[in-house]
Amino acid sequence: MPQKPLVSVIIPTHNRVVLLNRAVNSVLEQTWENLEVVVVDDASNDETPALLDELAVKYSHLRVVRNEESRQAAASRNIAIRHAKGEYVTGLDDDDYWRPTRIERLMEEFEEGLAAVCSYDKMVMNGKEVVWRKPSMITLDDLLYYNQVGNQVLTKKEYLDHVGGYDENLPSAQDYDLWIRLVREFGPIHTVTSPLQVVNMEEGRDRITTSDKKMEGYRMCFDKHQKWMSPKHKTYQQYRMKMAAGESVRWIDLFRSVPAKLYLKEITRKLFL
After folding, report:
1. Where do the CATH 3.90.550.10 domains begin and end in the chain?
2. d(C-alpha 139, C-alpha 125), whole Å
Protein backbone atom coordinates (compact mmCIF):
# COMPACT_ATOMS: atom_id res chain seq x y z
CA MET A 1 0.00 0.00 0.00
CA PRO A 2 1.50 3.39 -1.01
CA GLN A 3 2.38 5.76 1.81
CA LYS A 4 0.00 8.64 2.43
CA PRO A 5 1.28 12.13 1.53
CA LEU A 6 3.29 14.00 4.14
CA VAL A 7 1.35 16.83 5.80
CA SER A 8 3.31 19.64 7.48
CA VAL A 9 1.64 21.37 10.41
CA ILE A 10 2.99 24.85 11.12
CA ILE A 11 2.60 26.46 14.54
CA PRO A 12 3.94 29.93 15.37
CA THR A 13 4.17 30.61 19.11
CA HIS A 14 5.15 33.31 21.58
CA ASN A 15 5.05 33.03 25.39
CA ARG A 16 2.11 30.65 25.68
CA VAL A 17 3.70 27.51 27.03
CA VAL A 18 0.61 25.87 28.59
CA LEU A 19 -1.65 26.46 25.62
CA LEU A 20 1.11 25.51 23.20
CA ASN A 21 1.48 22.15 24.92
CA ARG A 22 -2.24 21.48 24.36
CA ALA A 23 -2.01 22.59 20.71
CA VAL A 24 1.02 20.44 19.91
CA ASN A 25 -0.45 17.39 21.61
CA SER A 26 -3.67 17.78 19.61
CA VAL A 27 -1.52 17.47 16.47
CA LEU A 28 0.50 14.53 17.77
CA GLU A 29 -2.80 12.72 18.49
CA GLN A 30 -4.00 12.98 14.88
CA THR A 31 -5.17 9.80 13.17
CA TRP A 32 -3.23 10.81 10.03
CA GLU A 33 0.11 9.09 10.54
CA ASN A 34 2.39 10.73 7.96
CA LEU A 35 2.86 14.21 9.36
CA GLU A 36 5.50 16.56 10.66
CA VAL A 37 5.16 19.49 13.04
CA VAL A 38 7.16 22.69 12.49
CA VAL A 39 7.00 25.06 15.46
CA VAL A 40 8.46 28.55 15.12
CA ASP A 41 9.22 30.00 18.55
CA ASP A 42 8.97 33.76 18.07
CA ALA A 43 11.53 34.76 20.72
CA SER A 44 9.59 33.41 23.72
CA ASN A 45 11.08 34.23 27.14
CA ASP A 46 8.86 31.94 29.23
CA GLU A 47 9.19 28.14 29.53
CA THR A 48 8.36 27.61 25.84
CA PRO A 49 11.96 26.78 24.74
CA ALA A 50 12.28 24.13 27.46
CA LEU A 51 8.95 22.54 26.50
CA LEU A 52 9.87 22.46 22.82
CA ASP A 53 13.28 20.94 23.56
CA GLU A 54 11.56 18.20 25.54
CA LEU A 55 8.99 17.52 22.83
CA ALA A 56 11.61 17.52 20.06
CA VAL A 57 13.58 14.80 21.86
CA LYS A 58 10.45 12.74 22.37
CA TYR A 59 8.98 13.12 18.87
CA SER A 60 11.31 12.84 15.88
CA HIS A 61 8.75 14.38 13.51
CA LEU A 62 8.62 17.64 15.50
CA ARG A 63 11.07 20.34 14.48
CA VAL A 64 11.69 23.66 16.20
CA VAL A 65 12.89 26.91 14.64
CA ARG A 66 13.67 29.83 16.95
CA ASN A 67 13.59 33.53 16.14
CA GLU A 68 16.19 35.33 18.24
CA GLU A 69 14.11 38.50 17.94
CA SER A 70 10.34 38.64 17.56
CA ARG A 71 9.27 38.57 13.91
CA GLN A 72 5.47 38.44 14.55
CA ALA A 73 2.89 36.06 13.14
CA ALA A 74 3.12 36.41 9.35
CA ALA A 75 6.91 36.16 9.23
CA SER A 76 6.90 33.22 11.65
CA ARG A 77 4.39 31.36 9.49
CA ASN A 78 6.44 32.02 6.36
CA ILE A 79 9.55 30.73 8.12
CA ALA A 80 7.63 27.57 9.05
CA ILE A 81 6.42 27.12 5.46
CA ARG A 82 9.99 27.40 4.15
CA HIS A 83 11.06 24.65 6.57
CA ALA A 84 8.07 22.43 5.76
CA LYS A 85 8.87 19.27 3.81
CA GLY A 86 5.28 18.11 3.22
CA GLU A 87 3.35 18.14 -0.02
CA TYR A 88 0.48 19.60 2.01
CA VAL A 89 0.60 22.31 4.67
CA THR A 90 -1.88 23.29 7.34
CA GLY A 91 -1.58 25.63 10.31
CA LEU A 92 -2.61 25.84 13.94
CA ASP A 93 -2.55 28.84 16.28
CA ASP A 94 -0.86 28.09 19.58
CA ASP A 95 -3.97 28.76 21.68
CA ASP A 96 -6.31 26.62 19.55
CA TYR A 97 -6.47 22.84 19.22
CA TRP A 98 -7.80 20.09 16.96
CA ARG A 99 -10.05 17.09 17.10
CA PRO A 100 -8.08 13.88 16.40
CA THR A 101 -9.49 13.30 12.90
CA ARG A 102 -8.97 16.83 11.53
CA ILE A 103 -6.10 16.17 9.13
CA GLU A 104 -7.56 12.87 7.95
CA ARG A 105 -10.95 14.43 7.22
CA LEU A 106 -9.44 17.41 5.40
CA MET A 107 -7.17 15.22 3.31
CA GLU A 108 -10.10 12.97 2.36
CA GLU A 109 -11.94 15.94 0.87
CA PHE A 110 -9.07 17.75 -0.83
CA GLU A 111 -9.16 17.35 -4.62
CA GLU A 112 -7.86 19.01 -7.75
CA GLY A 113 -9.70 22.21 -8.58
CA LEU A 114 -9.76 23.34 -4.96
CA ALA A 115 -7.45 25.95 -3.49
CA ALA A 116 -7.78 24.48 0.00
CA VAL A 117 -10.09 22.80 2.51
CA CYS A 118 -11.21 23.98 5.94
CA SER A 119 -13.79 22.82 8.50
CA TYR A 120 -16.44 24.10 10.83
CA ASP A 121 -14.90 25.63 13.96
CA LYS A 122 -16.06 25.44 17.56
CA MET A 123 -15.65 28.96 18.96
CA VAL A 124 -15.09 29.21 22.73
CA MET A 125 -15.60 32.51 24.55
CA ASN A 126 -16.43 33.26 28.19
CA GLY A 127 -17.33 29.65 28.89
CA LYS A 128 -19.76 29.48 25.96
CA GLU A 129 -19.35 27.42 22.81
CA VAL A 130 -20.83 27.98 19.37
CA VAL A 131 -20.15 26.14 16.12
CA TRP A 132 -19.27 28.34 13.14
CA ARG A 133 -21.01 26.74 10.17
CA LYS A 134 -19.38 27.95 6.97
CA PRO A 135 -20.53 27.62 3.35
CA SER A 136 -19.82 24.21 1.85
CA MET A 137 -17.90 25.85 -1.01
CA ILE A 138 -16.34 29.26 -0.39
CA THR A 139 -15.81 31.21 -3.61
CA LEU A 140 -13.99 34.43 -4.41
CA ASP A 141 -17.37 36.21 -4.41
CA ASP A 142 -17.99 34.95 -0.86
CA LEU A 143 -14.55 36.01 0.36
CA LEU A 144 -14.75 39.50 -1.06
CA TYR A 145 -17.59 40.19 1.38
CA TYR A 146 -15.68 38.97 4.43
CA ASN A 147 -13.45 36.16 5.69
CA GLN A 148 -15.78 33.17 5.62
CA VAL A 149 -12.92 30.69 6.03
CA GLY A 150 -11.52 31.53 9.46
CA ASN A 151 -7.88 31.29 10.48
CA GLN A 152 -6.72 27.95 9.03
CA VAL A 153 -6.89 25.81 5.89
CA LEU A 154 -5.11 22.77 4.47
CA THR A 155 -3.56 23.38 1.07
CA LYS A 156 -0.63 22.35 -1.11
CA LYS A 157 2.80 23.77 -0.30
CA GLU A 158 3.31 24.57 -3.98
CA TYR A 159 0.18 26.76 -3.88
CA LEU A 160 1.54 28.73 -0.90
CA ASP A 161 4.89 29.13 -2.65
CA HIS A 162 3.18 30.26 -5.85
CA VAL A 163 1.23 33.10 -4.19
CA GLY A 164 4.13 34.13 -1.94
CA GLY A 165 2.84 33.00 1.46
CA TYR A 166 1.63 35.45 4.08
CA ASP A 167 1.98 39.17 3.41
CA GLU A 168 4.35 40.41 6.11
CA ASN A 169 3.49 44.05 5.35
CA LEU A 170 -0.02 43.61 6.76
CA PRO A 171 -0.25 44.17 10.55
CA SER A 172 -3.36 41.94 10.68
CA ALA A 173 -5.77 40.08 8.34
CA GLN A 174 -2.82 38.18 6.86
CA ASP A 175 -4.84 34.96 6.75
CA TYR A 176 -7.81 36.64 5.04
CA ASP A 177 -5.50 38.19 2.44
CA LEU A 178 -3.86 34.82 1.76
CA TRP A 179 -7.19 33.02 1.29
CA ILE A 180 -8.25 35.60 -1.30
CA ARG A 181 -5.03 35.13 -3.24
CA LEU A 182 -5.24 31.34 -3.10
CA VAL A 183 -8.85 31.31 -4.30
CA ARG A 184 -8.09 33.71 -7.13
CA GLU A 185 -5.34 31.40 -8.39
CA PHE A 186 -6.54 27.89 -7.65
CA GLY A 187 -10.32 27.74 -7.13
CA PRO A 188 -12.75 27.66 -4.20
CA ILE A 189 -12.17 26.45 -0.65
CA HIS A 190 -14.24 23.44 0.40
CA THR A 191 -15.60 23.11 3.95
CA VAL A 192 -15.79 19.83 5.85
CA THR A 193 -19.06 20.12 7.76
CA SER A 194 -17.77 18.98 11.17
CA PRO A 195 -16.26 21.14 13.94
CA LEU A 196 -12.72 19.79 13.74
CA GLN A 197 -10.96 22.80 15.27
CA VAL A 198 -11.56 24.52 18.61
CA VAL A 199 -10.80 28.25 18.45
CA ASN A 200 -10.01 30.26 21.56
CA MET A 201 -11.95 33.55 21.46
CA GLU A 202 -11.60 34.45 25.14
CA GLU A 203 -11.76 38.18 25.78
CA GLY A 204 -8.51 39.78 26.80
CA ARG A 205 -6.32 37.06 25.30
CA ASP A 206 -3.88 38.68 22.91
CA ARG A 207 -3.18 36.74 19.75
CA ILE A 208 0.30 36.72 18.24
CA THR A 209 -0.77 39.78 16.22
CA THR A 210 -1.29 42.82 18.44
CA SER A 211 -4.92 43.95 18.68
CA ASP A 212 -4.24 47.67 18.12
CA LYS A 213 -3.14 46.87 14.55
CA LYS A 214 -6.31 44.95 13.67
CA MET A 215 -8.24 47.75 11.96
CA GLU A 216 -5.19 49.03 10.11
CA GLY A 217 -4.57 45.57 8.69
CA TYR A 218 -8.14 45.12 7.50
CA ARG A 219 -8.13 48.50 5.82
CA MET A 220 -4.89 47.63 4.06
CA CYS A 221 -6.34 44.28 2.98
CA PHE A 222 -9.44 46.06 1.63
CA ASP A 223 -7.28 48.50 -0.35
CA LYS A 224 -5.22 45.63 -1.72
CA HIS A 225 -8.20 43.68 -3.08
CA GLN A 226 -10.89 46.26 -3.78
CA LYS A 227 -10.13 46.27 -7.51
CA TRP A 228 -11.72 42.79 -7.57
CA MET A 229 -14.79 43.93 -5.62
CA SER A 230 -18.23 44.88 -6.88
CA PRO A 231 -20.03 47.91 -5.39
CA LYS A 232 -21.91 45.51 -3.06
CA HIS A 233 -18.64 43.99 -1.84
CA LYS A 234 -17.24 47.44 -1.14
CA THR A 235 -20.37 48.62 0.67
CA TYR A 236 -20.40 45.61 2.96
CA GLN A 237 -16.67 45.80 3.67
CA GLN A 238 -16.95 49.50 4.53
CA TYR A 239 -19.94 48.80 6.75
CA ARG A 240 -18.04 46.13 8.70
CA MET A 241 -15.05 48.41 9.17
CA LYS A 242 -17.29 51.21 10.44
CA MET A 243 -19.01 48.88 12.89
CA ALA A 244 -15.66 47.55 14.12
CA ALA A 245 -14.47 51.11 14.68
CA GLY A 246 -17.60 51.95 16.68
CA GLU A 247 -19.03 54.31 14.05
CA SER A 248 -22.77 54.58 13.43
CA VAL A 249 -24.27 53.14 10.24
CA ARG A 250 -27.60 53.60 8.46
CA TRP A 251 -29.30 50.22 8.27
CA ILE A 252 -31.50 51.38 5.41
CA ASP A 253 -28.39 52.08 3.33
CA LEU A 254 -27.07 48.60 4.04
CA PHE A 255 -30.46 47.07 3.16
CA ARG A 256 -30.44 48.84 -0.20
CA SER A 257 -26.89 47.87 -1.04
CA VAL A 258 -26.10 44.26 -0.11
CA PRO A 259 -27.64 40.80 -0.68
CA ALA A 260 -30.56 40.00 1.59
CA LYS A 261 -28.75 37.14 3.36
CA LEU A 262 -25.99 39.50 4.52
CA TYR A 263 -28.47 42.11 5.70
CA LEU A 264 -30.38 39.48 7.69
CA LYS A 265 -27.11 38.20 9.13
CA GLU A 266 -26.20 41.64 10.44
CA ILE A 267 -29.69 42.35 11.79
CA THR A 268 -29.66 39.04 13.65
CA ARG A 269 -26.25 39.77 15.13
CA LYS A 270 -27.36 43.27 16.14
CA LEU A 271 -30.51 42.00 17.87
CA PHE A 272 -29.27 38.88 19.60
CA LEU A 273 -25.51 39.20 20.20
Report:
1. 7-212
2. 28
